[in-house]
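Q: What residues go here?
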C-alpha cells in the first residue's frame, strides 16, 4: 500500500489552518516540526488528570505523574533501541550537548582533542570552545566537500592518540547530508576515541537502532521530532554516564547532602537536577510512540520523491542554485538553495506571501557559510506530512521571486 500522506496530515490540526487567507505550507520542519493530536492529547492528559511533581511525592497524583514521566523515558529508549536508564531528559539538544561537554569534558585533560566538522550547528561547536577555555582541550575540524558532506577522506589524518571524542551531526541541518557513521566509528575505534552524534535532524525521520550504529553518545530535540518545546534527550552508554560527574546541582540528583559533602544519585537522575520538564517529556514519549507507528519505508520514499520534485523544479528556475548533495543517496529531506542576486531573507519573505514557511540565513552554521563565502541560504526542510502541493506552492513562490527581485 502506498504511503497515505492525507491520513498523516489529518493528525496535524495546524496544517488545515488558514492564516491571512492562505493555507499553511510548512516547510520549516528543521527549525521546529508540527505536533500531532496524539502528542497534544498526552500532554493534556497529564495536565488535566495527573499534574504533580515527579520522583518526590507519595500521593496518588505524584505517583501518576512519576509513572507517566518514567513511561516517557521507556518510549524514548524504545525509539532508540537502548535501555531506559541510559536516557537523560534535558532542556533540548543544545542542553544535551552542553551536558556532555561539561560532564564528559570534566574527565578530559589539557591537550586532549575533540574532533568536529565544518558543517556543525553552533550548538556542537560553542560548548566545546567553552570547554577549551575551561580545560585546555584542543579542537580539530573535518572539512566539508563541495557538495556539503563531511569529508571523511580527511578523517585519518586528523586523528591522534589525544583525540578523545568525535562529535558530528548525524544529518546536516543545512545540506541534509547524512554522515557515514560506520566509517566514523571504525576510525574512532582505531585511536580509542568516543563518538557522539547530534541527531537533531535525523530523529524526526524515524526510529534509530543505536546499538547497531556503535556510537557512544546521541542527542536530539523534542520540538523537531513532533514533540513539545523545552525537552531534549541525551543517550549515553551506561558506563559513560556512571563515570561522568553532574552538570547541574540541586534537588533529585543527589544521594545524600550534608554541608560537608554531597553524594550523587545514579544516572539518569544524576543529570536531571531540579523539577524536570514533565509535560514536555510526556509529550516527547508520545511523539516517539507516534513515530514508531508510522510507515517509515513509505514516509522516506515519499520524502525523497518531494526532494527530487523540489530539486528538479529549482533547476528549471533561472538563477536558482542548489547547495548540498545533488542526489538522493544518504540524505534526508533538507534542501538548501540560493537565488543569484537575491538575499535569502528576501526569498523567504516572498515565499511567506505565498503561504510557504521556510528558513533563510546562516542556519546557526556560520563556519559552513564562511567556507563557501555565503551570507546564508534558503532552506526547505520537509516532514512526512508535507505533500506535492507544498512543493508546488514553494516553486511558484521562487519563480515569482526570480522574476520580481532579480
Ligand atoms: C543539527 C542541529 N543541532 C543542534 C540544534 C539545536 O537544537 P535546539 O535548538 O533544539 O537545542 C539544531 C537546531 O536547529 C540542529 O539543527
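A:
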Amino acid at each position: 500500500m502506498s504511503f497515505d500522506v492525507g491520513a498523516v496530515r489529518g493528525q496535524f490540526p495546524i496544517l488545515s489552518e488558514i492564516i491571512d487567507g492562505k493555507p499553511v505550507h510548512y516547510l520549516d520542519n528543521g527549525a521546529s516540526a508540527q505536533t500531532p493530536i496524539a502528542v497534544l492529547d498526552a500532554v493534556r492528559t497529564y495536565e488535566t488528570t495527573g499534574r504533580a511533581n515527579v520522583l518526590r511525592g507519595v500521593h496518588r497524583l505524584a505517583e501518576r505523574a512519576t509513572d507517566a514521566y518514567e513511561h516517557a523515558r521507556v518510549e524514548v529508549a524504545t525509539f532508540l533501541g537502548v535501555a531506559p536508564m541510559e536516557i537523560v531528559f534535558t532542556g533540548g539538544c543544545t542542553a544535551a550537548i552542553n551536558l556532555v561537554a561539561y560532564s564528559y569534558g570534566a574527565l578530559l585533560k589539557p591537550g586532549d582533542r575533540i574532533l568536529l566538522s565544518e558543517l556543525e550547528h553552533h550548538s556542537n561547536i560553542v560548548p566545546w570552545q567553552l570547554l577549551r577555555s575551561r580545560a585546555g582541550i584542543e579542537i580539530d575540524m573535518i572539512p566539508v566537500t563541495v557538495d556539503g558532506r563531511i569529508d571523511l577522506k580527511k578523517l585519518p589524518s586528523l586523528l591522534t592518540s589525544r583525540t578523545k571524542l568525535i562529535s558530528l551531526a548525524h544529518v546536516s541541518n543545512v545540506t541534509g547530508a547524512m554522515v557515514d557513521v560506520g566509517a566514523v566509528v571504525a576510525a574512532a575505534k582505531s585511536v580509542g576515541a568516543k563518538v557522539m552524534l547530534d541527531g537533531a535532524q535525523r530523529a524526526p525521520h524515524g526510529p534509530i537502532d543505536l546499538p547497531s550504529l556503535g556510537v557512544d553518545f546521541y542527542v536530539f530535540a523534542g520540538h523537531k521530532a513532533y514533540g513539545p518545546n523545552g525537552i531534549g534527550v541525551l543517550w549515553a552508554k551506561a558506563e559513560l554516564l556512571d563515570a561522568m560527574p553532574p552538570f547541574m546541582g540541586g534537588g533529585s540528583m543527589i544521594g545524600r547532602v550534608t554541608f560537608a559533602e554531597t553524594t550523587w544519585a545514579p544516572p539518569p537522575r544524576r543529570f536531571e537536577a531540579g523539577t524536570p520538564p514533565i509535560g514536555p517529556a510526556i509529550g516527547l514519549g508520545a511523539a516517539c510512540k507516534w513515530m514508531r507507528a508510522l510507515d517509515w519505508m513509505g514516509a522516506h520514499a515519499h520524502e525523497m520523491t518531494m526532494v527530487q520534485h523540489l530539486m528538479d523544479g529549482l533547476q528549471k528556475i533561472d538563477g536558482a542554485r542548489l547547495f548540498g548533495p545533488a542526489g538522493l543517496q544518504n540524505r534526508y529531506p533538507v534542501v538548501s538553495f540560493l537565488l543569484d542576486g537575491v538575499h535569502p531573507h528576501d526569498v523567504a519573505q516572498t515565499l511567506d506571501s505565498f503561504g510557504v514557511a521556510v528558513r533563510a540565513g546562516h542556519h546557526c552554521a556560520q563556519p559552513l557559510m564562511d567556507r563557501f563565502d555565503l551570507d546564508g541560504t534558503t532552506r526547505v526542510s520537509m516532514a512526512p506530512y508535507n505533500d506535492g502541493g507544498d512543493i508546488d506552492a514553494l516553486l511558484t513562490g521562487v519563480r515569482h521571486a526570480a522574476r520580481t527581485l532579480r
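A: Context that may help when evaluating the design: The first strand starts at residue 18 and ends at 19. The chain has two domains: 5-31+295-404, 39-293.
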